[in-house]
Write a structure and sequence with these properties.
Layout (H helix, E strand, L loop, with lengths): L3 H11 L14 E2 L10 H13 L10 H13 L6 E4 L1 H13 L6 E5 L3 H9 L4 E5 L8 H7 L5 E5 L11 H10 L4 E4 L20 E6 L12 E5 L1 H11 L7 H10 L3 H24 L4 E2 L6 E5 L4 H10 L2 E2 L1 E6 L2 E8 L3 H15 L1
Parallel strand pairs: 1-11, 3-4, 3-5, 5-6, 6-7
Antiparallel strand pairs: 2-8, 7-8, 9-10, 10-13, 12-13
The structure holds pyridoxal-5'-phosphate (PLP).
Pyridoxal-5'-phosphate binds next to helix 4.
């Protein structure tokens, strides 16, 4: 039966869990996906209108990806030959895995790590070596250094989703320099963190720094991601792996326009960091949760057995956060995205009422 192998493959794939998306709740205050609502709706309307004006979607976007890369190059101050783009950074991670890794590539990462990346490794049967977070949701550098000898590739999201942890800069630099193999540092949340390792790309030929427009720019729906790496990696990616027209015209043009507005982004990031501090302090004041520090646009907390009740009660009030459950030694973790001041106040007020 020639079809048998195919049926077997379908069965094998359907047994995988797949990426767990949050439940869509209409009209809910959306604090479940680490999007950026501080960037206001008018800003994205203007971008799309601007993109529409200069686009003709009857044509393939010939030469426009190059323009986006040029704009990124100016913004990041790295050569365009070191940049690649993708349909969201998800797609970049996926393409790196599928083209560079096999069932024999052992990937060193943290536990937990970015869920999509982990699920993709499972999909391609790529083995992972996972270093767990400690009780206070930090990572141990020495543990990573010792396990790195057994690994072929290192993947870390810095800051980490879902914990919000970021290694001290010196530690991450040491890890990258010591790792004998490719290193992917996923900087999806870097604008909310303490530092970036982007500049290391110039001296570290094994380093790939992946970034996105979804968080800093508040453009998750456009699906725009990019990476910066050594020229040989960027060249093979753009010329051989990712072609001819992976991004749509509107996303490309809106991305180019967004890069001209970086002041709006940095103001939004400053506000988010301030609001993050307010959320952490207020959640801690309740004495009902263990609340972890965060360098990202979300806050993780252990609801100490009350996670179901908190989650459901918030949903009933039209507030959607993320229920994560067990992370390391913590049984009942919840993650809330830092939204606008008003959104955060509604969330904190609802929590206060719930605990009364
Ligand atoms: C660590 C990390 N990397 C990448 C992504 C995906 O970004 P994109 O929207 O560019 O696919 C996310 C999204 O939540 C993330 O948490």
């Amino acid at each position: 039966m020639k079809n048998e192998w195919f049926q077997k493959k379908i069965k094998e794939l359907s047994s995988l869990q797949g990426y767990q998306k949050p439940e869509k709740q209409s009209e809910a205050l959306k604090l479940d996906s680490n999007e950026n609502f501080v960037i206001n709706k008018q800003f994205q309307r203007d971008l799309i209108d601007g993109a529409k004006k200069i686009s003709d979607v009857r044509e393939y976007p010939l030469g426009r990806i190059e323009k986006l890369i040029e704009a990124l190059s100016k913004n990041l101050k790295v050569s365009p030959s070191m940049i690649g783009v993708g349909n969201g950074s998800d797609q970049i991670l996926d393409l790196l895995l599928v083209n560079f890794c096999s069932k024999k590539t052992r990937i060193l990462t943290s536990d937990p790590t970015f869920g999509f990346f982990e699920e993709r490794c499972k999909l391609y049967s790529i083995p992972t070596i996972k270093i767990p977070f400690s009780k206070d949701m930090t990572l141990d550098l020495e543990n990573f250094l010792s396990k790195s000898k057994n690994a072929d590739l290192l993947y870390l999201d810095s800051p980490n989703n879902p914990t919000g942890f970021q290694f001290p800069k010196k530690d991450l630099e040491k890890l990258i320099k010591n790792f004998d193999g490719p290193v992917i540092i996923d900087e999806a949340y870097v604008e909310f963190g303490d530092y970036s390792v982007l500049n290391m790309v110039k001296s570290q030929s094994n380093l790939i720094v992946v970034r996105t427009f979804s968080k800093e720019f508040g453009l998750a729906g456009l699906r725009l991601g990019y990476f910066v790496a050594n020229k040989a990696i960027a060249d093979v990616f753009t010329r051989i792996i990712q072609y001819p027209y992976p991004l749509n015209t509107i996303a490309i043009e809106a991305g180019i326009l967004a890069l001209q507005k970086s002041k709006i982004m940095s103001d939004a990031a400053t506000l988010i960091k301030k609001e993050r501090k307010r959320i952490i302090e207020n959640l801690r004041k309740t004495n009902a949760f263990e609340v972890f520090d965060s360098k990202a646009n979300f806050v993780l907390f252990d609801a100490k057995g009350a996670e179901r009740r908190i989650y459901t009660a918030l949903v009933e009030q039209g507030i959607s956060i993320r229920k994560l459950g067990k992370i390391g030694k913590h049984q009942g973790c919840l993650r809330v995205t830092v939204g606008t001041k008003e959104m955060n106040s509604k969330f904190l007020l609802a929590i206060r009422d719930l605990l009364q």
